[in-house]
């Protein structure tokens, strides 16, 4: 089992942080590994929406579809994929510290299958490193 949780404090109101982070169209701007996205269901984002992402991770090209399994605007978004050798669930949460400050938490968990399970510790470390960099990027973009 891989379970990685990272968080960052962003000096921006929770509504702005959550609206930006939960919009899949913004993902290529703040996720270094995501190279593109495509809506698979009509907008807007709701529970049941599906979004395809193209990514590069650990030197591999990946294409997968996430389904939004929970969405509470301004508070929480959960999306999961059951495709490929590493099914993953990503949870975003946003918590208001004060009217102009938000804690954003990103949690990725999954159970690698087949050959991938031998690389779970390496994958967890790589995911943690990538998530920290991505959260720093979204902080920089939103605080500008």
In short:
This protein has 144 residues and is α+β, with helices and mostly antiparallel strands. The protein has helices at residues 14-21, 27-30, 120-143; strands at residues 2-10, 34-39, 50-57, 60-72, 76-81, 88-98, 101-110.
Explain how this protein is built:
25% of the residues lie in helices and 44% in strands. It is globular and about 45 Å long. The chain starts with a strand and ends with a helix. It has 3 helices and 7 strands; from the N terminus they run E-H-H-E-E-E-E-E-E-H. With 144 residues, it is of the alpha+beta class.
Task: Quickly list its features.
7-stranded antiparallel beta sheet, 144 residues, 7 strands, 44% strand
* Main sheet specs: 7 strands, antiparallel
Mean pLDDT: 91
Task: Detail the poorly predicted runs.
Answer: none
Q: Which class best fits the helix and strand makeup?
A: alpha+beta
List the secondary-structure elements in sequence, H or E: EHHEEEEEEH
Helix content: 25-40%
Secondary structure tally: strands = 7
Number of helices: 3
* Quaternary assembly: single chain
- In spatial order, strands of the major sheet run 1-7-6-5-4-3-2
Distance separating the two termini:
37 Å
Give Rg in angstroms.
Answer: 15 Å
Beta-strand portion reads 35-45%
Name the shape in a single word: globular
Write the layout of secondary structure elements.
Elements lengths: L1 E9 L3 H8 L5 H4 L3 E6 L10 E8 L2 E13 L3 E6 L6 E11 L2 E10 L9 H24 L1
């Amino acid at each position: 089992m891989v379970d990685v949780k990272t968080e960052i404090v962003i000096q921006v109101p929770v509504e702005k942080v959550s609206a930006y982070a939960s919009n899949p169209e913004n993902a290529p701007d703040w996720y270094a590994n995501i190279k593109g996205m495509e809506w698979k269901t009509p907008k807007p984002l709701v529970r049941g929406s599906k979004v395809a992402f193209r990514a590069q991770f650990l030197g591999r090209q990946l294409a997968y579809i996430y389904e939004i399994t929970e969405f509470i605007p301004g508070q929480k978004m959960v999306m999961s994929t059951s495709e490929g050798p590493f099914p993953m669930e990503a949870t975003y949460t946003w918590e208001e510290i004060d009217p102009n400050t938000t804690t954003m938490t990103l949690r990725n968990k999954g159970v690698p299958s087949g050959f991938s399970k031998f690389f779970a510790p390496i994958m967890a470390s790589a995911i943690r490193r990538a998530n920290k960099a991505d959260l720093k990027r979204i902080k920089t973009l939103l605080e500008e």
